[in-house]
Amino acid sequence: MDEYKSLNKYLNKKGNREENNNFDVMIRFLLSKILICLILFVCFLIGIKGSSSFKATFYDKVYTQSFSFATVNSWYKSLFGDVFPLENFFPKDVEVFSEKLTYESANIYKDGVALKVSEKYLVPLLNDGIVVYLGDKDDYGKTLIVQQEDGIEVWYCNINFSDISMYDYLNKGSFVGEANGDSIYLVFEKDGKFLDYKNYI
């Protein structure tokens, strides 16, 4: 009986020691991460304080240039696959809507183009991209802006949106919305400059 008690004591002590070791490892890991972050932050502050060119570059990259989420998403997928690789667990969806853009005529309109389409025309997406804006724009009406993988932002205007939310990733040819009347407006923009629509439709 005494031997049994001492064996239990030994096993309990061993278990407690292992738990303490695991806890110590976690604390060390957390502290090392915090230390590295502090060092990087201090280096960043020194760079800002000491260099006016660093300040100008930082300001330009953060405040004046748009960040290409779609390009980063495409790069990440090419290297690592989807964030949640569930394609092996669930059957692939069958696309119901996959169309190309068709229109009767095109005329320059403000910074883009007005396309004459049929009433209630179902608007397809021109290229893969991420939704970066949903709302109303003056002179354009209801507008959806999609940032494509090539960095071009395409405005789809004067449409009634389908079931789309901000930061949704949409595939080429998928349903964007329904034309509000018999015309839609498209605008192509990159790095704050409007592009000639003839190169893209």
Provide an overview of this structure.
The chain is of the alpha+beta class. It folds into two domains: 2-65; 105-199, Glucose Permease (Domain IIA). It is built from three helices and eleven strands; from the N terminus they run αααβββββββββββ. The strands form two sheets. Strands 1, 2, 4, 5, 6, 8, 10 and 11 form an eight-stranded antiparallel β-sheet that branches. Strands 3-9-7 form a three-stranded antiparallel β-sheet, with no helix packed on it. Strand 5 (141-148) and strand 6 form a beta hairpin. The termini are far apart. The mean pLDDT is 79.
Question: What order do the helices and strands come in, and which of them pair?
Answer:
Blueprint (H helix, E strand, L loop, with lengths): L1 H49 L1 H13 L4 H12 L24 E5 L2 E5 L5 E3 L4 E9 L3 E8 L4 E5 L1 E3 L7 E2 L4 E5 L3 E8 L2 E2 L7
Antiparallel strand pairs: 1-2, 2-10, 3-9, 4-5, 4-8, 5-6, 6-10, 7-9, 10-11
Biggest β-sheet strands, sense, barrel: 8 strands, antiparallel
Number of strands: 11
Helix content: 25-40%
Strand content: 25-35%
Mean pLDDT: 79
Low-confidence stretches: none
Task: Output the CATH topology of the largest domain.
Answer: Glucose Permease (Domain IIA)
Specify Rg, calculated over alpha carbons.
27 Å
The named CATH superfamily of the largest domain: Glucose Permease (Domain IIA)
The SS-based structural class is: alpha+beta
Q: Can you tell me the CATH class of the largest domain?
A: Mainly Beta
Q: Please tell me the total number of domains.
A: 2
Shape: elongated
Query: Counting H and I runs of at least 4 residues, what is the number of helices?
Result: 3
